[in-house]
Amino acid sequence: MSAYTLEATRPSADELARLAALAPPGQPLYLSHVPSQTLREMADLAVAVRRAGLEPVLHLAARRIASSAELIACLQRACGEGGMRRVLVIGGDVPAPAGPYADALSLIRGMDLRAAGIEEIGVAGHPQGHPVIPAETMTRALTDKLVAVRDAGLRAHIVTQFAFSAEPIVGFVHRLREGGVTAPVHVGLAGPTRLTTLLRYAARCGVAASAQGLMSGAAAALALAGRAGPDAILDALRRSAPALGIIAPHYFSFGGLVETARYASVVAPIASGRAITRPDPAFANQEPAP
């Protein structure tokens, strides 16, 4: 759990400053690429993240990139002034490509990311499948992307879509390992937030079916009363960890970046028995969560 990563959309300067006070120096922060953002804005954000003492990791949504020149300009600034060394290459769910990249694989093969300064590429994993793409196609695409990253002389890792229970995650990682895939897996988890927010994002991201468990019993009552975190999933992953290879939590900050960082940097280390090295002042007088 100490190797966790965070993901945010358009974090403000204030959020970055507060995150820097909570997280270890160089904490990776993945920056999601929403349709309304230009690549120039993404590069500027990478620089801001680096200036805050954190490590920027840009999403590169292949089908939203209008030209290779636009991508090169983004990478030059993000890798130069922003010191970026990792990216997450995704397809980008839009009906038609805006430019030369039809999917993540074509971007990995068509752009010399190593020459731009990139050392490691993340690719997407879907423990519960994709809303419209067949499972066999997704499996083949994941394998092809990992091979393409290796052929480019770069390190690879997998970042999964978030889920609301441990079973699909454990099964997905087991299948990867049985198939000979040894790349680290960053397990997508929803940071602490309200039930209604989780359900809204689940519907948007195509994982609504797995949200049904949130609607029953004590879990729903707790979430409706306050903010629910992925404690049960983390506990299950920790018990399964020896057989899952290299894994780490990847927190989507649906409930807010600072709140998610507090959870990751304080609650999770307490749960795993680790000492807290940089406690958030807001938690200084609170007891650990049971």
Task: Write up this protein.
The protein has helices at 13-22, 39-51, 68-80, 104-110, 113-116, 135-151, 166-178, 195-205, 217-225, 231-240, 257-271; strands spanning 5-8, 28-31, 55-61, 86-90, 120-125, 155-160, 185-190, 247-252. It is α/β, with parallel strands linked by helices. An eight-stranded parallel beta barrel has the order 1-2-3-4-5-6-7-8, surrounded by four helices. The longest helix has 17 residues, at 135-151. 42% of the residues are buried.
Which helices and strands appear, and what pairs or packs with what?
Blueprint: E1 5-8, H1 13-22, E2 28-31, H2 39-51, E3 55-61, H3 68-80, E4 86-90, H4 104-110, H5 113-116, E5 120-125, H6 135-151, E6 155-160, H7 166-178, E7 185-190, H8 195-205, H9 217-225, H10 231-240, E8 247-252, H11 257-271
Parallel strand pairs: 1-2, 1-8, 2-3, 3-4, 4-5, 5-6, 6-7, 7-8
Helix pairs in contact: 1-11, 2-3, 4-6
